């Protein structure tokens, strides 16, 4: 196991927080989709150093490369409501407007582009550091 994975695993083991994460992924292996382009959110629950897949939730993509004037607002609202019970979002990319709206629901947005597994561990580290500051 490489050094980065060892560090991620040790930090994850130290945390006992339980939280729910929505992940944007085309194939379930990589965090490789833009929030506005996703049609499926993978939902995970993280407890300490462990995570488990809970379900896939479907929505309609709302971002059409800036051409989202009419249905874009309502579809974005639908996408946000689909994951409103989650504590965090792990996505390759997300616009500022969507980040602000998700923030109103208390959902932390993390842009990440690598494997889902490492992304979940990275998110654990970020949340751990955030709670240490508070």
TrEMBL record:
CDD domains per the UniProt record, alphabetical: NifB
Pfam family, one: Nitro_FeMo-Co
SUPFAM superfamilies: Nitrogenase accessory factor-like
Source domain of life: Archaea
Domain (Dinitrogenase iron-molybdenum cofactor biosynthesis) ranges: 28-112
Gene3D superfamilies in alphabetical order: Dinitrogenase iron-molybdenum cofactor biosynthesis domain
Entry-linked InterPro entries: Di-Nase_FeMo-co_biosynth, DiNase_FeMo-co_biosyn_sf, NifB_C, NifX/NifY_domain
Name of the featured protein: Dinitrogenase iron-molybdenum cofactor biosynthesis domain-containing protein
Classification of source organism: Archaea, Methanobacteriati, Methanobacteriota, Stenosarchaea group, Methanomicrobia
């Amino acid at each position: 196991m490489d050094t980065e994975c060892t560090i991620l695993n040790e930090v994850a083991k130290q945390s006992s927080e339980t939280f729910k994460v929505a992940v944007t992924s085309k194939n379930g292996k990589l965090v490789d989709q833009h929030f506005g382009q996703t049609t499926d959110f993978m939902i995970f629950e993280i407890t300490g150093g462990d995570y488990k897949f809970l379900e896939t939730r479907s929505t309609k993509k709302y971002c059409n490369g800036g051409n989202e004037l009419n249905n874009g607002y309502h579809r974005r609202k639908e996408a946000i409501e689909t994951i409103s019970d989650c504590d965090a979002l792990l996505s390759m990319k997300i616009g500022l407007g969507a980040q602000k709206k998700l923030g109103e629901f208390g959902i932390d947005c993390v842009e990440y582009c690598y494997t889902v597994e490492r992304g979940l561990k990275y998110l654990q580290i970020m949340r751990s550091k955030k709670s240490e500051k508070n």
